[in-house]
Protein backbone atom coordinates (compact mmCIF):
# COMPACT_ATOMS: atom_id res chain seq x y z
CA UNK A 1 0.00 0.00 0.00
CA UNK A 2 1.19 3.50 -0.66
CA UNK A 3 -0.02 7.06 -0.21
CA UNK A 4 -0.21 9.66 -2.97
CA UNK A 5 -0.89 13.37 -3.13
CA UNK A 6 -1.11 15.95 -5.92
CA UNK A 7 -1.49 19.72 -5.69
CA UNK A 8 -2.13 22.59 -8.09
CA UNK A 9 -1.86 25.74 -5.99
CA UNK A 10 -1.28 29.46 -6.27
CA UNK A 11 1.71 29.59 -3.94
CA UNK A 12 4.71 27.23 -3.51
CA UNK A 13 3.56 23.67 -2.78
CA UNK A 14 6.68 22.14 -1.22
CA UNK A 15 5.65 22.55 2.42
CA UNK A 16 2.06 21.48 1.76
CA UNK A 17 3.22 18.34 -0.02
CA UNK A 18 5.57 17.53 2.84
CA UNK A 19 2.78 18.03 5.39
CA UNK A 20 0.42 15.94 3.28
CA UNK A 21 2.89 13.08 3.09
CA UNK A 22 3.34 13.20 6.86
CA UNK A 23 -0.42 12.75 7.18
CA UNK A 24 -0.27 9.79 4.79
CA UNK A 25 2.78 8.28 6.47
CA UNK A 26 0.74 5.36 7.89
CA UNK A 27 0.28 4.17 4.27
CA UNK A 28 3.99 3.59 3.76
CA UNK A 29 7.21 4.08 5.66
CA UNK A 30 9.71 2.59 3.29
CA UNK A 31 10.42 5.58 1.04
CA UNK A 32 9.11 9.03 0.24
CA UNK A 33 9.36 11.40 -2.68
CA UNK A 34 8.17 14.76 -3.98
CA UNK A 35 8.34 16.33 -7.44
CA UNK A 36 7.38 19.95 -7.97
CA UNK A 37 6.83 21.76 -11.26
CA UNK A 38 8.00 25.28 -11.84
CA UNK A 39 6.98 26.33 -15.36
CA UNK A 40 8.66 23.79 -17.61
CA UNK A 41 11.07 22.55 -14.92
CA UNK A 42 10.58 19.52 -12.68
CA UNK A 43 12.36 19.31 -9.32
CA UNK A 44 12.58 15.93 -7.64
CA UNK A 45 13.76 14.63 -4.30
CA UNK A 46 13.15 11.11 -3.03
CA UNK A 47 14.81 8.64 -0.70
CA UNK A 48 14.43 5.66 1.59
CA UNK A 49 12.83 6.06 4.99
CA UNK A 50 10.27 8.21 6.74
CA UNK A 51 9.19 11.57 5.38
CA UNK A 52 10.96 13.40 8.21
CA UNK A 53 14.23 11.62 7.37
CA UNK A 54 14.10 11.97 3.59
CA UNK A 55 13.62 15.73 3.33
CA UNK A 56 16.15 18.20 4.68
CA UNK A 57 15.84 21.98 4.47
CA UNK A 58 18.13 22.13 1.46
CA UNK A 59 15.96 19.56 -0.37
CA UNK A 60 12.84 21.48 0.48
CA UNK A 61 14.35 24.71 -0.84
CA UNK A 62 15.05 23.12 -4.20
CA UNK A 63 11.45 21.90 -4.58
CA UNK A 64 10.17 25.06 -6.23
CA UNK A 65 6.88 25.61 -8.00
CA UNK A 66 3.16 25.78 -7.39
CA UNK A 67 2.24 22.33 -8.74
CA UNK A 68 3.52 19.05 -7.36
CA UNK A 69 3.00 15.40 -6.49
CA UNK A 70 4.21 13.21 -3.63
CA UNK A 71 4.36 9.58 -2.65
CA UNK A 72 5.01 7.46 0.44
CA UNK A 73 5.97 3.92 -0.34
CA UNK A 74 5.03 0.73 1.36
CA UNK A 75 7.12 -2.12 0.09
CA UNK A 76 5.47 -5.04 -1.60
CA UNK A 77 7.22 -8.28 -0.79
CA UNK A 78 10.58 -8.70 -2.38
CA UNK A 79 11.50 -5.12 -2.94
CA UNK A 80 11.74 -3.56 0.50
CA UNK A 81 14.26 -0.75 0.77
CA UNK A 82 15.12 -0.55 -2.90
CA UNK A 83 15.89 3.12 -3.38
CA UNK A 84 15.62 2.71 -7.16
CA UNK A 85 11.93 1.95 -6.69
CA UNK A 86 11.14 5.03 -4.61
CA UNK A 87 8.52 7.16 -6.34
CA UNK A 88 7.63 9.37 -8.18
CA UNK A 89 9.20 7.95 -11.35
CA UNK A 90 10.39 10.17 -14.19
CA UNK A 91 10.54 9.63 -17.94
CA UNK A 92 11.87 12.30 -20.27
CA UNK A 93 9.73 11.65 -23.32
CA UNK A 94 7.27 13.01 -24.28
CA UNK A 95 7.54 16.40 -22.54
CA UNK A 96 8.93 15.01 -19.27
CA UNK A 97 6.44 13.10 -17.16
CA UNK A 98 6.52 12.08 -13.49
CA UNK A 99 4.10 9.65 -11.88
CA UNK A 100 3.25 8.24 -8.46
CA UNK A 101 1.04 5.19 -8.01
CA UNK A 102 -0.84 3.41 -5.26
CA UNK A 103 -1.88 -0.13 -6.12
CA UNK A 104 -0.53 -3.00 -8.16
CA UNK A 105 -0.77 -3.93 -11.83
CA UNK A 106 -1.58 -7.58 -12.38
CA UNK A 107 -0.28 -7.69 -15.99
CA UNK A 108 2.98 -5.83 -15.39
CA UNK A 109 5.17 -8.66 -16.74
CA UNK A 110 3.31 -8.80 -20.04
CA UNK A 111 3.36 -5.01 -20.31
CA UNK A 112 7.06 -4.95 -19.66
CA UNK A 113 7.58 -7.28 -22.60
CA UNK A 114 5.32 -5.13 -24.78
CA UNK A 115 7.19 -2.02 -23.75
CA UNK A 116 10.48 -3.54 -24.76
CA UNK A 117 9.46 -5.28 -27.96
CA UNK A 118 6.74 -2.99 -29.38
CA UNK A 119 6.99 0.41 -27.77
CA UNK A 120 10.81 0.41 -27.59
CA UNK A 121 10.87 1.66 -24.03
CA UNK A 122 13.28 0.56 -21.37
CA UNK A 123 12.09 -0.26 -17.84
CA UNK A 124 14.92 -0.04 -15.38
CA UNK A 125 13.41 -1.39 -12.15
CA UNK A 126 11.10 -4.19 -11.01
CA UNK A 127 8.41 -1.67 -10.19
CA UNK A 128 5.04 -1.98 -11.89
CA UNK A 129 4.69 1.78 -11.39
CA UNK A 130 7.55 2.44 -13.77
CA UNK A 131 5.73 0.23 -16.29
CA UNK A 132 2.55 2.24 -15.74
CA UNK A 133 4.42 5.51 -16.31
CA UNK A 134 5.85 4.23 -19.58
CA UNK A 135 2.48 2.99 -20.82
CA UNK A 136 1.03 6.42 -20.08
CA UNK A 137 3.97 8.19 -21.73
CA UNK A 138 3.69 6.01 -24.82
CA UNK A 139 -0.05 6.60 -25.14
CA UNK A 140 0.33 10.34 -24.58
CA UNK A 141 2.98 10.50 -27.27
CA UNK A 142 0.54 8.89 -29.71
CA UNK A 143 -2.11 11.48 -28.88
CA UNK A 144 -0.08 14.65 -29.24
CA UNK A 145 1.37 16.63 -32.12
CA UNK A 146 4.31 18.95 -31.54
CA UNK A 147 4.58 20.39 -28.07
CA UNK A 148 0.85 20.93 -27.49
CA UNK A 149 -0.99 19.03 -24.79
CA UNK A 150 -4.67 19.56 -24.19
CA UNK A 151 -7.31 17.83 -22.07
CA UNK A 152 -8.51 15.75 -25.04
CA UNK A 153 -5.07 14.32 -25.62
CA UNK A 154 -4.61 13.57 -21.92
CA UNK A 155 -7.98 11.84 -21.62
CA UNK A 156 -7.47 9.81 -24.79
CA UNK A 157 -4.13 8.66 -23.40
CA UNK A 158 -5.72 7.65 -20.07
CA UNK A 159 -8.46 5.77 -21.96
CA UNK A 160 -5.76 3.84 -23.84
CA UNK A 161 -3.94 3.17 -20.55
CA UNK A 162 -7.14 1.71 -19.04
CA UNK A 163 -7.36 -0.64 -22.01
CA UNK A 164 -3.82 -1.89 -21.62
CA UNK A 165 -3.31 -2.21 -17.89
CA UNK A 166 -5.06 -4.39 -15.33
CA UNK A 167 -5.20 -4.36 -11.59
CA UNK A 168 -5.53 -1.61 -9.02
CA UNK A 169 -4.26 1.91 -9.47
CA UNK A 170 -4.77 5.36 -8.13
CA UNK A 171 -2.35 7.67 -9.91
CA UNK A 172 -1.08 11.25 -9.78
CA UNK A 173 1.17 12.42 -12.57
CA UNK A 174 2.58 15.67 -14.01
CA UNK A 175 3.39 16.60 -17.57
CA UNK A 176 6.23 19.12 -17.53
CA UNK A 177 5.14 22.61 -18.49
CA UNK A 178 1.50 21.58 -18.72
CA UNK A 179 -0.37 20.21 -15.74
CA UNK A 180 -1.36 17.51 -13.30
CA UNK A 181 -3.23 14.33 -14.27
CA UNK A 182 -4.92 11.96 -11.82
CA UNK A 183 -6.90 8.80 -12.47
CA UNK A 184 -8.35 5.79 -10.75
CA UNK A 185 -8.78 2.19 -11.92
CA UNK A 186 -12.14 1.17 -13.46
CA UNK A 187 -13.06 -0.83 -10.32
CA UNK A 188 -12.19 1.97 -7.93
CA UNK A 189 -10.15 -0.43 -5.82
CA UNK A 190 -7.67 2.09 -4.48
CA UNK A 191 -8.93 5.37 -3.06
CA UNK A 192 -8.46 8.85 -4.53
CA UNK A 193 -10.26 11.94 -3.32
CA UNK A 194 -10.48 15.43 -4.82
CA UNK A 195 -10.58 18.64 -2.80
CA UNK A 196 -10.31 22.35 -3.38
CA UNK A 197 -9.55 25.55 -1.53
CA UNK A 198 -10.61 29.06 -2.51
CA UNK A 199 -7.81 31.56 -1.95
CA UNK A 200 -7.55 35.28 -2.80
CA UNK A 201 -5.37 34.27 -5.77
CA UNK A 202 -7.88 31.70 -7.06
CA UNK A 203 -8.92 28.05 -6.68
CA UNK A 204 -6.36 25.47 -5.56
CA UNK A 205 -6.84 21.72 -6.09
CA UNK A 206 -5.65 18.69 -4.18
CA UNK A 207 -5.89 14.97 -4.89
CA UNK A 208 -4.97 12.49 -2.19
CA UNK A 209 -5.31 8.89 -1.08
CA UNK A 210 -7.26 9.89 2.02
CA UNK A 211 -9.60 12.74 2.88
CA UNK A 212 -7.81 13.47 6.16
CA UNK A 213 -5.07 15.07 4.04
CA UNK A 214 -7.59 17.58 2.70
CA UNK A 215 -9.01 18.33 6.14
CA UNK A 216 -5.61 18.88 7.71
CA UNK A 217 -4.38 21.19 4.95
CA UNK A 218 -7.48 23.35 4.81
CA UNK A 219 -9.03 21.93 1.62
CA UNK A 220 -12.73 21.20 1.22
CA UNK A 221 -13.51 17.67 0.06
CA UNK A 222 -15.27 17.87 -3.33
CA UNK A 223 -15.79 14.17 -4.10
CA UNK A 224 -13.99 10.90 -4.73
CA UNK A 225 -12.54 10.47 -8.19
CA UNK A 226 -14.92 8.01 -9.87
CA UNK A 227 -13.68 4.57 -10.96
CA UNK A 228 -12.17 5.00 -14.44
CA UNK A 229 -12.37 8.80 -14.28
CA UNK A 230 -9.44 11.11 -15.02
CA UNK A 231 -8.85 14.67 -13.89
CA UNK A 232 -6.53 17.11 -15.67
CA UNK A 233 -5.63 20.44 -14.07
CA UNK A 234 -3.37 22.83 -15.93
CA UNK A 235 -0.59 24.62 -14.08
CA UNK A 236 -2.64 27.80 -14.12
CA UNK A 237 -5.63 26.08 -12.54
CA UNK A 238 -8.04 25.13 -15.36
CA UNK A 239 -9.90 22.00 -14.31
CA UNK A 240 -11.07 19.22 -16.67
CA UNK A 241 -12.46 15.76 -15.97
CA UNK A 242 -13.76 12.85 -18.03
CA UNK A 243 -14.84 9.24 -17.64
CA UNK A 244 -12.12 7.38 -19.55
CA UNK A 245 -13.03 3.72 -18.99
CA UNK A 246 -15.68 1.77 -20.86
CA UNK A 247 -16.75 -0.71 -18.20
CA UNK A 248 -16.67 0.49 -14.65
CA UNK A 249 -17.74 -0.94 -11.33
CA UNK A 250 -17.26 0.43 -7.85
CA UNK A 251 -15.61 -2.11 -5.60
CA UNK A 252 -13.36 -0.38 -3.07
CA UNK A 253 -10.82 -2.48 -1.22
CA UNK A 254 -12.41 -3.60 2.05
CA UNK A 255 -9.04 -3.87 3.76
CA UNK A 256 -8.77 -0.06 3.75
CA UNK A 257 -11.64 -0.08 6.25
CA UNK A 258 -10.37 -3.05 8.22
CA UNK A 259 -6.86 -1.81 8.73
CA UNK A 260 -5.17 0.54 6.34
CA UNK A 261 -6.89 3.87 6.28
CA UNK A 262 -6.91 6.33 9.14
CA UNK A 263 -10.11 6.33 11.15
CA UNK A 264 -10.63 10.04 10.51
CA UNK A 265 -10.77 9.52 6.74
CA UNK A 266 -13.86 9.16 4.61
CA UNK A 267 -13.34 6.92 1.57
CA UNK A 268 -15.99 6.71 -1.15
CA UNK A 269 -18.45 8.36 1.21
CA UNK A 270 -17.76 5.81 3.96
CA UNK A 271 -16.48 7.00 7.30
CA UNK A 272 -13.68 4.59 8.18
CA UNK A 273 -14.38 5.09 11.87
CA UNK A 274 -18.11 4.43 11.52
CA UNK A 275 -17.43 1.24 9.58
CA UNK A 276 -15.15 0.04 12.38
CA UNK A 277 -17.89 0.73 14.94
CA UNK A 278 -20.28 -1.46 12.94
CA UNK A 279 -17.63 -4.16 12.70
CA UNK A 280 -17.58 -4.23 16.51
CA UNK A 281 -21.34 -4.32 16.73
CA UNK A 282 -21.64 -7.20 14.27
CA UNK A 283 -18.88 -9.12 15.96
CA UNK A 284 -20.71 -8.73 19.28
CA UNK A 285 -23.81 -10.22 17.63
CA UNK A 286 -21.77 -13.19 16.49
CA UNK A 287 -20.30 -13.75 19.94
CA UNK A 288 -23.75 -13.52 21.50
CA UNK A 289 -25.17 -16.02 19.03
CA UNK A 290 -22.36 -18.53 18.76
CA UNK A 291 -20.51 -18.34 22.09
CA UNK A 292 -23.10 -17.23 24.66
CA UNK A 293 -21.26 -18.92 27.51
CA UNK A 294 -17.94 -17.09 27.25
CA UNK A 295 -17.12 -15.80 30.73
CA UNK A 296 -15.51 -12.50 29.71
CA UNK A 297 -14.61 -9.97 32.43
CA UNK A 298 -13.21 -7.25 30.22
CA UNK A 299 -12.77 -6.28 26.54
CA UNK A 300 -9.33 -4.92 25.63
CA UNK A 301 -8.31 -3.58 22.20
CA UNK A 302 -4.94 -4.21 20.62
CA UNK A 303 -4.02 -0.65 19.69
CA UNK A 304 -4.55 1.27 17.51
CA UNK A 305 -6.81 0.25 14.65
CA UNK A 306 -9.13 -2.03 16.61
CA UNK A 307 -10.14 0.50 19.28
CA UNK A 308 -13.41 1.57 17.64
CA UNK A 309 -14.51 -2.03 17.02
CA UNK A 310 -13.55 -3.15 20.52
CA UNK A 311 -15.40 -0.27 22.16
CA UNK A 312 -18.60 -0.93 20.27
CA UNK A 313 -18.30 -4.67 20.80
CA UNK A 314 -18.00 -4.12 24.56
CA UNK A 315 -20.99 -1.74 24.55
CA UNK A 316 -23.13 -4.25 22.73
CA UNK A 317 -22.20 -7.10 25.03
CA UNK A 318 -22.63 -4.91 28.11
CA UNK A 319 -19.04 -5.55 29.16
CA UNK A 320 -16.41 -3.16 30.49
CA UNK A 321 -13.91 -1.80 27.95
CA UNK A 322 -10.43 -1.08 29.22
CA UNK A 323 -7.16 0.03 27.68
CA UNK A 324 -4.65 -2.68 28.54
CA UNK A 325 -1.61 -1.90 26.41
CA UNK A 326 0.92 0.88 26.23
CA UNK A 327 2.26 1.50 22.79
CA UNK A 328 5.68 2.89 22.11
CA UNK A 329 4.84 5.40 19.43
CA UNK A 330 8.43 5.83 18.35
CA UNK A 331 8.61 2.39 16.76
CA UNK A 332 7.31 1.80 13.22
CA UNK A 333 4.57 -0.63 12.28
CA UNK A 334 5.89 -4.12 12.95
CA UNK A 335 4.67 -5.54 9.67
CA UNK A 336 7.03 -3.26 7.83
CA UNK A 337 10.10 -4.77 9.46
CA UNK A 338 11.99 -7.23 7.31
CA UNK A 339 11.96 -10.82 8.44
CA UNK A 340 10.14 -12.78 11.06
CA UNK A 341 12.73 -12.60 13.85
CA UNK A 342 12.85 -8.81 13.74
CA UNK A 343 9.08 -8.64 13.52
CA UNK A 344 8.64 -10.87 16.56
CA UNK A 345 11.07 -8.90 18.62
CA UNK A 346 9.49 -5.62 17.71
CA UNK A 347 5.99 -6.66 18.87
CA UNK A 348 7.32 -6.64 22.43
CA UNK A 349 9.23 -3.44 21.92
CA UNK A 350 6.15 -1.78 20.59
CA UNK A 351 3.40 -2.99 22.90
CA UNK A 352 3.50 -3.76 26.57
CA UNK A 353 0.64 -4.94 28.76
CA UNK A 354 -0.52 -2.96 31.80
CA UNK A 355 -0.48 -5.83 34.28
CA UNK A 356 -3.30 -4.63 36.58
CA UNK A 357 -5.77 -4.78 33.70
CA UNK A 358 -5.04 -8.46 33.14
CA UNK A 359 -4.20 -9.99 36.48
CA UNK A 360 -6.81 -12.56 37.53
CA UNK A 361 -9.21 -11.67 34.68
CA UNK A 362 -10.75 -13.41 31.68
CA UNK A 363 -10.04 -11.06 28.83
CA UNK A 364 -11.36 -10.70 25.32
CA UNK A 365 -8.65 -9.15 23.15
CA UNK A 366 -9.84 -7.48 19.95
CA UNK A 367 -7.65 -6.94 16.91
CA UNK A 368 -8.54 -5.71 13.44
CA UNK A 369 -7.19 -8.82 11.72
CA UNK A 370 -4.89 -11.79 12.09
CA UNK A 371 -2.48 -12.24 9.21
CA UNK A 372 0.58 -14.33 10.02
CA UNK A 373 -0.39 -14.60 13.67
CA UNK A 374 3.00 -13.40 14.89
CA UNK A 375 1.49 -10.39 16.64
CA UNK A 376 -1.40 -12.29 18.20
CA UNK A 377 0.79 -15.15 19.45
CA UNK A 378 3.19 -12.76 21.16
CA UNK A 379 0.38 -10.71 22.62
CA UNK A 380 -1.49 -13.70 24.03
CA UNK A 381 1.71 -14.85 25.66
CA UNK A 382 2.43 -11.39 27.11
CA UNK A 383 -1.09 -11.17 28.48
CA UNK A 384 -0.77 -14.56 30.15
CA UNK A 385 2.57 -13.51 31.65
CA UNK A 386 0.74 -10.43 32.99
CA UNK A 387 -1.60 -12.74 34.92
CA UNK A 388 -4.70 -13.15 32.70
CA UNK A 389 -6.73 -16.28 33.45
CA UNK A 390 -8.49 -16.92 30.16
CA UNK A 391 -7.54 -15.18 26.94
CA UNK A 392 -10.11 -14.97 24.14
CA UNK A 393 -9.22 -13.37 20.84
CA UNK A 394 -11.62 -11.63 18.46
CA UNK A 395 -10.77 -10.49 14.94
CA UNK A 396 -12.86 -7.68 13.44
CA UNK A 397 -12.07 -9.15 10.01
CA UNK A 398 -12.65 -12.66 8.69
CA UNK A 399 -9.76 -15.13 8.38
CA UNK A 400 -7.15 -13.92 5.87
CA UNK A 401 -6.63 -16.88 3.55
CA UNK A 402 -5.53 -15.52 0.17
CA UNK A 403 -2.79 -13.23 -1.11
CA UNK A 404 -3.72 -9.71 -2.09
CA UNK A 405 -2.70 -8.75 -5.62
CA UNK A 406 -4.03 -5.20 -5.57
CA UNK A 407 -1.30 -3.46 -3.61
CA UNK A 408 -1.62 -4.76 -0.05
CA UNK A 409 1.29 -6.82 1.15
CA UNK A 410 -0.19 -10.14 2.21
CA UNK A 411 2.11 -13.08 2.73
CA UNK A 412 1.89 -16.33 0.78
CA UNK A 413 -0.88 -18.80 1.55
CA UNK A 414 1.44 -21.03 3.54
CA UNK A 415 2.48 -18.11 5.75
CA UNK A 416 -1.10 -17.04 6.45
CA UNK A 417 -2.16 -18.45 9.78
CA UNK A 418 -5.73 -19.17 8.65
CA UNK A 419 -4.74 -21.26 5.63
CA UNK A 420 -6.05 -24.77 6.25
CA UNK A 421 -7.02 -24.02 9.85
CA UNK A 422 -10.36 -23.47 11.53
CA UNK A 423 -10.91 -21.14 14.50
CA UNK A 424 -10.14 -23.89 17.05
CA UNK A 425 -6.82 -24.72 15.37
CA UNK A 426 -5.97 -21.03 15.13
CA UNK A 427 -6.72 -20.60 18.84
CA UNK A 428 -4.29 -23.43 19.58
CA UNK A 429 -1.66 -21.86 17.32
CA UNK A 430 -1.77 -18.48 19.04
CA UNK A 431 -2.27 -19.97 22.51
CA UNK A 432 -5.74 -18.46 23.08
CA UNK A 433 -8.66 -20.19 24.83
CA UNK A 434 -10.92 -19.33 21.90
CA UNK A 435 -10.81 -17.27 18.71
CA UNK A 436 -13.76 -15.61 17.05
CA UNK A 437 -13.73 -14.13 13.56
CA UNK A 438 -16.09 -11.75 11.84
CA UNK A 439 -18.05 -13.36 8.99
CA UNK A 440 -17.36 -11.89 5.55
CA UNK A 441 -21.03 -11.01 4.97
CA UNK A 442 -21.04 -9.14 8.28
CA UNK A 443 -17.87 -7.25 7.38
CA UNK A 444 -19.33 -6.23 4.03
CA UNK A 445 -22.58 -5.22 5.73
CA UNK A 446 -20.67 -3.11 8.27
CA UNK A 447 -18.98 -1.07 5.53
CA UNK A 448 -22.01 -0.99 3.23
CA UNK A 449 -24.14 0.42 6.05
CA UNK A 450 -22.00 3.59 5.99
CA UNK A 451 -22.85 4.29 2.33
CA UNK A 452 -25.69 2.31 0.79
CA UNK A 453 -24.55 3.33 -2.72
CA UNK A 454 -21.49 1.10 -2.46
CA UNK A 455 -22.79 -2.41 -2.76
CA UNK A 456 -19.73 -4.53 -3.50
CA UNK A 457 -16.17 -4.59 -2.27
CA UNK A 458 -12.82 -6.02 -3.24
CA UNK A 459 -12.54 -8.83 -0.65
CA UNK A 460 -10.06 -11.24 -2.25
CA UNK A 461 -7.83 -11.82 0.77
CA UNK A 462 -10.87 -13.22 2.59
CA UNK A 463 -12.85 -14.75 -0.27
CA UNK A 464 -10.25 -15.70 -2.89
CA UNK A 465 -12.40 -13.90 -5.50
CA UNK A 466 -10.36 -11.50 -7.62
CA UNK A 467 -12.62 -8.98 -9.28
CA UNK A 468 -10.34 -8.11 -12.19
CA UNK A 469 -10.98 -11.62 -13.49
CA UNK A 470 -7.39 -12.22 -14.57
CA UNK A 471 -6.02 -13.98 -11.49
CA UNK A 472 -5.60 -17.72 -11.77
CA UNK A 473 -3.69 -20.36 -9.86
CA UNK A 474 -0.62 -19.88 -12.08
CA UNK A 475 -0.53 -16.16 -11.24
CA UNK A 476 -0.83 -16.82 -7.51
CA UNK A 477 1.86 -19.51 -7.68
CA UNK A 478 4.17 -17.08 -9.48
CA UNK A 479 3.79 -14.25 -6.96
CA UNK A 480 4.14 -16.75 -4.14
CA UNK A 481 7.41 -18.08 -5.46
CA UNK A 482 8.66 -14.49 -5.83
CA UNK A 483 7.64 -13.82 -2.24
CA UNK A 484 9.33 -17.00 -1.06
CA UNK A 485 12.55 -15.77 -2.63
CA UNK A 486 12.03 -12.50 -0.83
CA UNK A 487 11.43 -14.41 2.40
CA UNK A 488 14.77 -16.15 1.96
CA UNK A 489 16.42 -12.77 1.61
CA UNK A 490 14.58 -11.70 4.78
CA UNK A 491 15.95 -14.70 6.66
CA UNK A 492 19.45 -13.72 5.62
CA UNK A 493 18.76 -10.21 6.85
CA UNK A 494 17.52 -11.68 10.14
CA UNK A 495 20.71 -13.61 10.46
CA UNK A 496 22.72 -10.44 9.85
CA UNK A 497 20.51 -8.65 12.36
CA UNK A 498 21.01 -11.32 15.01
CA UNK A 499 24.74 -11.44 14.40
CA UNK A 500 24.74 -7.65 14.63
CA UNK A 501 22.90 -7.77 17.95
CA UNK A 502 25.24 -10.49 19.25
CA UNK A 503 28.25 -8.41 18.24
CA UNK A 504 26.83 -5.36 19.94
CA UNK A 505 26.30 -7.40 23.09
CA UNK A 506 29.93 -8.44 23.03
CA UNK A 507 31.16 -4.87 22.95
P1 LIG B 1 0.18 -10.72 12.14
O1 LIG B 1 -1.03 -11.54 12.40
O2 LIG B 1 1.27 -10.90 13.12
O3 LIG B 1 0.69 -10.95 10.75
O4 LIG B 1 -0.20 -9.20 12.25
C1 LIG B 1 -1.48 -8.79 12.08
C2 LIG B 1 -1.58 -7.34 12.45
O5 LIG B 1 -0.78 -6.54 11.55
C3 LIG B 1 -3.01 -6.88 12.23
O6 LIG B 1 -3.65 -6.91 13.45
C4 LIG B 1 -2.89 -5.49 11.70
O7 LIG B 1 -2.87 -4.59 12.77
C5 LIG B 1 -1.56 -5.50 11.01
N1 LIG B 1 -1.70 -5.76 9.58
C6 LIG B 1 -2.60 -6.50 8.95
N2 LIG B 1 -2.37 -6.54 7.63
C7 LIG B 1 -1.30 -5.81 7.40
C8 LIG B 1 -0.58 -5.46 6.24
N3 LIG B 1 -0.91 -5.92 5.04
N4 LIG B 1 0.47 -4.65 6.37
C9 LIG B 1 0.83 -4.19 7.56
N5 LIG B 1 0.19 -4.49 8.70
C10 LIG B 1 -0.86 -5.29 8.63
UniProtKB/TrEMBL annotation:
PROSITE patterns to which the protein is assigned, alphabetical: GATASE_TYPE_2
Key words of the record: Glutamine amidotransferase, Glycosyltransferase, Magnesium, Metal-binding, Purine biosynthesis, Transferase
InterPro entries in the cross-refs: GATase_2_dom (IPR017932), Ntn_hydrolases_N (IPR029055), PRTase-like (IPR029057), PRTase_dom (IPR000836), PurF (IPR005854), PurF_N (IPR035584)
Organism of origin: Chitinivorax tropicus
Record text on cofactor binding: Binds 1 Mg(2+) ion per subunit.
Enzyme class of the recorded protein, top EC level: transferase
Family: In the C-terminal section; belongs to the purine/pyrimidine phosphoribosyltransferase family.
Protein name: Amidophosphoribosyltransferase
Obligatory cofactor(s): Mg(2+)
Reaction equation(s) it catalyzes: 5-phospho-beta-D-ribosylamine + L-glutamate + diphosphate = 5-phospho-alpha-D-ribose 1-diphosphate + L-glutamine + H2O
Binding of Mg(2+), residues: 305, 367-368
